[in-house]
Amino acid sequence: MDDYDTIYGSDRGPQITIKEADSRHAQIVLSNCDLAFANALRRIMLAEIPTIAIDIVEIQTNTSVIPDEFLCHRLGMVPLDSTNIDDKLIYTRDCFCDQYCERCSVTLSLHARCTGEDNVTVYARDLVIAEGAQLGSPVINDPEGQGTVICKLRKGQELRLKCIAKKGIAKEHAKWAPTAAVGFEYDPWNKLRHIDYWYEEDAKEEWPKSKYADWEEPPIEGEPFNYDAVPSRFYLDIESAGSLPPDEILQQGIKYLQEKLAAVIETFSNKNETGDGFGDGVRSPGQDYSMGGMGGGGAGYETPYQGGRTPFGGGGFGGATEYGGRLMGGHKCVAAVAMG
Amino acid sequence: MTVRHPGGSASFEILGEDHTLGNALRYIIMKNPEVEFCGYSIPHPSEEKMNIRIQIYPEYWEHTKPYDALMKGLDDLADLCDHITHAFKEARDNFVEPGDNSEQR
């Protein structure tokens, strides 16, 4: 393909084989690829693919034994259907609404009360999504069709709340992660000796064989060690959390890697009026900072010490997004942001 | 982003990027035969800064600047992504669930 020969010579470049796949997970083999790229793909699938998750909870009644903030956290973790999110929802920070609107959020409501003698369990299926929402319905995969447990209610206890689900990425909070895990393995026979196995008497006897071992040739006894060998086959096991199917996770991963590149290219091109890469931002080592802007819609320069805020709005300590947190003060009802 | 050292070598500082881009970019820039050295570093984990250093072999100084190598690296990485997308779509279309084809998307 195009400019491709210059990178990979005459060979065909990376290849993909799908070993196993269903609606929740996929095992793929990325061959003729390099470690740096395979790892970039893994990292991006873990942390930078947008999904939708409950971000603000307005609680009207909570007489359950679970405190409000605990409940909010649980609600935040419920996976919501996020397929084709890029066509359906924008980030609240990019929206011109005051707080949230249907362009940048999805509203789900929950009302449950225990009236009988037996305890009632509230499940994800009890979240009622606002009419006309294109995505954001709770993911239900169990055979009973109930979804995850949110809480349990005893006689007389009641739950009445409104959830605002927003678009976000797992770099800000893990609730937005599309993957439950991404398995990443290479060199199942440890020919490259990247692993030094601990053993009692014999490592070969004591360690189980890799599940990918049958996909590669076992080492020949007495074979000399190849000092130039580098890993080139990578076994990825994409385990979906439910919000996106594994094939969409992979495709979105590549897409967002390209968006990163595009953002960097654009920023450099804007800075570089002189054509040599030394636009207005040149500085010598040791010289004081004159900060340049940053691409990709981020907030630019922030000191790392003030509140630990990331350009993505979040931050561990306050437990509030830049956009969500601001909203809370204005509400009369008890509110908390669904962040851990 | 800021640039240091004019001439055949330069360091670029990219804000808001991490190892995801850093290592892949470093690798792809090193593939360029005109590049003598490319390395990246994230000096401090709580600062969102990624520094990438590029040195060009002196014989190419005339027509290649580190900036050009960086831009070529970014382009090459984008091409690689295109290729992977293509390879994945092909693999997905050829994939047949054993004993079941309901999962074809």
Automatic annotation (TrEMBL), chain A:
This is DNA-directed RNA polymerase II subunit RPB3. Pfam families: RNA_pol_A_bac, RNA_pol_L. It is found in: Nucleus. Component of the RNA polymerase II (Pol II) complex consisting of 12 subunits. Residues 25-267 form the DNA-directed RNA polymerase RpoA/D/Rpb3-type domain. Its main location: nucleus. It comes from Tuber melanosporum (strain Mel28). Belongs to the archaeal Rpo3/eukaryotic RPB3 RNA polymerase subunit family. NCBIfam families: PRK00783.1. One of its GO terms (biological process) is transcription by RNA polymerase II. CDD domains: RNAP_II_RPB3 (cd07031). GO terms for molecular function: DNA binding; DNA-directed RNA polymerase activity; protein dimerization activity.
TrEMBL record, chain B:
One of its GO terms (cellular component) is nuclear DNA-directed RNA polymerase complex. GO terms for molecular function: DNA binding; DNA-directed RNA polymerase activity; protein dimerization activity. Its main location: nucleus. Belongs to the archaeal Rpo11/eukaryotic RPB11/RPC19 RNA polymerase subunit family. This is (Perigord truffle) hypothetical protein. PROSITE patterns: RNA_POL_L_13KD (PS01154). It is found in: Nucleus. It comes from Tuber melanosporum (strain Mel28). Residues 10-85 form the DNA-directed RNA polymerase RBP11-like dimerisation domain. GO terms for biological process: termination of RNA polymerase I transcription; termination of RNA polymerase III transcription; transcription elongation by RNA polymerase I; transcription initiation at RNA polymerase I promoter; transcription initiation at RNA polymerase III promoter; tRNA transcription by RNA polymerase III. The keyword Nucleus applies. It holds the Pfam family RNA_pol_L_2. InterPro entries: RBP11-like, RBP11-like_dimer, RNA_pol_Rpb11_13-16kDa_CS, RNAP_AC19, Rpo11-like.
